[in-house]
Design brief:
330 residues, alpha/beta, 5-stranded parallel β-sheet, two-stranded parallel ribbon, 16 helices
Length: 330
């Protein structure tokens, strides 16, 4: 038997899906009429699964049990003991999860009797290459601006890019796809992407920030959290700029593609480290107030936007001296 009976696949959703598809194809090579049963870690019944795994298939040569969201299983040690049991020869079990810590009991349990595939997210140039490969596989022709827009909207998720490529292929299989088409057809169309809003705040453009915010139809709490993360990344870039780090090295250090780093550099240059630190300090305090019920998320968001886009006051040593009134001179 070439394919292990038990396999754990975890990490990047896109890479996990490809690995799962390859494994199921390999199983079908050995057992052509294998039945596939999909379960979910946050809702399946463990005793029932134990019975299913130990039974012999009646109407097929093989069975392939796929447990998704394995990282959501609460009784991890109990489940680890379950998968250590011997399985009928034609029964296969695949566990799919997001990020797992090296200390997770499932990793050790599967290593003892099967295979573990750790598939981390593609970052920086690796993400761009993977996205370009998906583009080539779907025979789509995107302009450079359109590709950048799609990468921005994907949030670094290759699985989202795959889904969008399939949709774009259905709408425009032979046409050159421009940036306007991406904005019209991509998954955020109709609700507006949050990224232009984040960029306008990072550029200290208050009118444009408020206009972009008005186009969003998203929970204020989520926008607040996204803005806090964005400003944190701008601060990271500002610190690295002050240290003379190159754009290429910076992209590796913050795990972001080069084109995004260049965009963040433009925003970082509009701020000082001290200014960004003060804004983030306010953001953390506002976040605590929101979570304790001391302020509404929408109000906290507006305060954070104003703090990030209002030019810093002049330092005390450069403050203009007050002039005596004309009445005093006379």
């Amino acid at each position: 038997m070439s394919e292990p009976q038990v396999t754990l696949i975890f990490g990047d959703p896109y890479r996990c899906e490809r690995a799962l598809a390859a494994r199921h194809t390999a199983i079908l090579t050995e057992y052509t009429d294998t039945e596939r049963h999909t379960l979910f870690g946050d809702e399946f019944d463990m005793p029932s699964l134990r019975v299913e795994l130990q039974s012999t298939p009646l109407f097929a040569l093989g069975r392939h049990f796929v447990v998704r969201h394995t990282d959501a299983i609460k009784e991890t040690k109990r489940f680890a003991a379950l998968i250590k049991r011997e399985l009928p020869p034609s029964t296969f079990l695949t566990l799919v999860a997001g990020e797992l810590k090296a200390s997770n009991p499932l990793i050790k349990a599967v290593e003892g009797r099967g295979s573990v595939q750790a598939l981390p997210r593609a970052k920086g140039k690796g993400f761009e290459r993977a996205a370009s490969k998906i583009l080539t596989e779907h025979d789509l022709n995107l302009t450079q601006e359109a590709l950048k827009e799609l990468l921005t909207r994907s949030g670094g998720n290759l699985l989202v890019i795959l889904q969008e490529m399939r949709k774009l292929h259905a709408f425009s299989p032979k046409e050159v796809i421009d940036e306007r088409s991406i904005k019209r057809l991509s998954f955020t169309a109709g609700e507006g992407s949050i990224y232009p809003f984040l960029d306008r705040v990072g550029e200290q453009n208050l009118p444009a920030s408020l206009a972009a915010l008005a186009a969003l139809h998203e929970d204020p709490g989520r926008i607040f959290s996204a803005l806090l993360r964005h400003l944190t990344r701008v601060l990271m870039v500002r610190v690295l700029l002050d240290q003379g780090i190159t754009t290429t090295k910076m992209a590796t250090m913050i795990a972001s593609p080069g084109w995004l780093v260049r965009r963040l550099i433009i925003q970082a240059k509009a701020h000082s480290v001290q200014r960004l630190t003060a804004v983030l300090d306010l953001g953390i305090k506002l976040d605590l107030k929101v979570k304790s019920g001391g302020i509404r998320p929408a109000d906290a968001l507006l305060k954070l936007i104003l703090a990030a886009t209002t030019p810093a006051p002049p330092a005390p040593e450069y403050a203009r001296r007050s002039q005596p009134s004309r009445a005093t001179i006379d």
